[in-house]
Amino acid sequence: AQSVSQHNHHVILSEAASLELGCNYSYGGTVNLFWYVQYPGQHLQLLLKYFSGDPLVKGIKGFEAEFIKSKFSFNLRKPSVQWSDTAEYFCAVNEGTYKYIFGTGTRLKVLA
Amino acid sequence: EAGVVQSPRYKIIEKKQPVAFWCNPISGHNTLYWYLQNLGQGPELLIRYENEEAVDDSQLPKDRFSAERLKGVDSTLKIQPAELGDSAVYLCASSLGRGDYNEQFFGPGTRLTVL
Predict the structure, then answer these.
(1) For residues A37 and A102, is the Cβ–Cβ distance under 8 A?
(2) In this structure, are residues B77 and B69 in contact, taking their beta carbons and an 8 Å threshold?
(3) CA distances to A10, A35, A89, B111 from A76, in Å
(4) How far is B105 from chain A (nearest CA, A)?
(5) Least CA distance to B35: which residue of chain A?
(6) Which of the residues in chain B have pLDDT under 70?
(7) Residue B12 forms beta bridges with which residues?
(8) Nearest to B101 by CA among A97, A15, A38, A16
(9) pLDDT (0 to 100) of residue A99
(10) Which residue of chain A is at minimal alpha-carbon distance from B50?
């Protein structure tokens, strides 16, 4: 069965530090990839998505992610985090259907 | 434009009691999803509607869970009777189409606590 792994469950960074959150998936075929963010007390929001084309995807708020097919990975990055980036981040995959498979999430805390 | 609306936001009940959650999707979105999110986990799909038809309810525990979307707009998810293990966040999402190339928009969720 398809699965998504987010190995970092909790990450604590100081402001201005660089961020990279790992995401690996198990499906071997064509996939669509997503990163969602959930700020404290708010609903899940789409951060960025990859369907095809340039494997480096730019999202909102300075986030980007790189799809590396050979590594089955879709890691999320931000060069310099801010206190307002404190949130929970979810990676999700679907193989061209409606069904998203979500990772377990990574809680990011940014210290001011 | 209003987002996906869910109510109540929080619900505390005793085990064996019934409970219902309501969802109003974004106007014009004909696909509606109910997800379950346990603590420390990502959302898991319970049921998907295309208009008023439940096209995938394979993950819905049908012995105690039921859902409806009578007019193809609002939806209700019910649990009867609730068990301790049902404590979780229940998320509703909607999309314009089937969701594969259409972004799913999530509501704020209903946090259920079963005592």
Answers:
(1) no
(2) no
(3) 14, 8, 9, 28
(4) 7
(5) A100
(6) 1, 98-102
(7) B113
(8) A97
(9) 78
(10) A98
